[in-house]
Amino acid sequence: MRHASISRTHRIALLVLTLVPGYLSPDLTAIAAPKGEVTWSPAALNVTVVQGTAKQINLQLTSTAGLTPGLFVTPEIAPFLVTRLPGGAEIKPSQIRQVAASIAAPADSRVGTYEGTVHVRQGNRTIPATLKVSIHIVAGSAEVVPEEVASPTPDRVVTTDTGFRVVVDELDVILKQDVSDQRELIARIAADTGGVVIGSIPGLSIYQLRFPGQTPDTLEGIASYIETLAGVESVSLNILGTVHVSPPNDPLFAEDWDTNIADGLNRHLEFARAPSAWELTTGNSSIRAAVIDARFDWLHPDLLPNIVVRGSDMPPWFTYKVPAADLGTGHGTITAGTLCARGNNSLGVTGFAWRCSLDVYDAEDSSTRGSAKRPEIDNNVAISAMKNAVDNGARVVNLSFGNTCADVTVSCLERLEKLAKKYAKAIRYSIDHRTNNQVLWIFAAGNEAVDAGLSLSGILEAQFPERVVVVGAAEVPPATPVGVYVPGRGVRRIVGIGA
Asked: At what angle do helices 410-433 and 379-391 cross, to 10 degrees?
């Protein structure tokens, strides 16, 4: 019987491995199962998403051991699921961490169920236990009316000749409040016009219809027809909003108080005479304020003590680690901090109010979420957040974004006026459903240097002069129809942990 022989090279290798103490230890440690485990909440993710729409979901992750993990999504669900750890990657033992999950089904996705898992990885090792995920992609229907806002996937967003960013195949229909069976009416409208119902804003009578294969131009005829139907108040394209951002041009935290320096970083507080106001009050937690914006870092130590509601039914509120050159990074964080960063706490900056009960709602559109692009606002999500802010008791609501008509054309103005009708529904809701009727809406005038009457905020201020205030940013107040100005560039500001 012939025995297999071992080559001389292999014999030497075996001898080295046997005689050198500890030689095997590093490799064995690398492949050994890591200590500790993680717990997901919920324990499994089961999500249904309509073709052409996206959902944002918050998960919770707890580890029995300290980790600096990464998240790995298996290939079966990777085309549809993106996960992120907001506020830095480190997880301390027994710490509960939020995991932001974005689920998007492009318009050409195949209907079906996709199953896979999300793994927590420490280096090249997997930490038990994994999160089981089932994603059910379904086609839109004329019969089923979802009771939540539908965010569009990036493949459905285009730029029109008037400069608006719109959802290419969607119409938003506002029904009159006195329609007894709104679900039956919108289903009939969708069936009669070849559309499907993909979303709604409950309580505001706003419904989202998708018309696969259509374009903004061809939708105009469909919209005109729907507006002639009994029970219909208005029909419009789904227009995305623009976050108003000015580029930072100075180092952060570079100067102390500087009342004698015209270009000082605290001049926005000096301009508004905040120190004099602080002699009377520095804020009160009984005052409820809301900020609807994009890219919040709710873990920021200057915001966390004041935050009450984090938009649990809105897209996740988290900071993206994107290049510093991205002007949109942390815009929601900056806006919330300017309003209500905790004061007199030996940290960072101070807001106009040192204390308040702050609600933050992230309304960023899925086409820019998680990217280095300047953020865009999903107006339907923002309008839904306005209603939620009212229901949660907000007295002041800030929206530092909007839409304008840089080129004065009939089509641009018509689209802007129809968009304003949707926002007006939320403002009217606050008047009709709040017993004290005292909600103040703060809108940004915009960065485009156009007449306020050519902006979303200006139209709303004209409709609700006692409810809406439009604020502009300028070094010296110019002679334009905006009544309130504050410095908007080169001011001291809060920054997100991941910015």
From this structure: 20
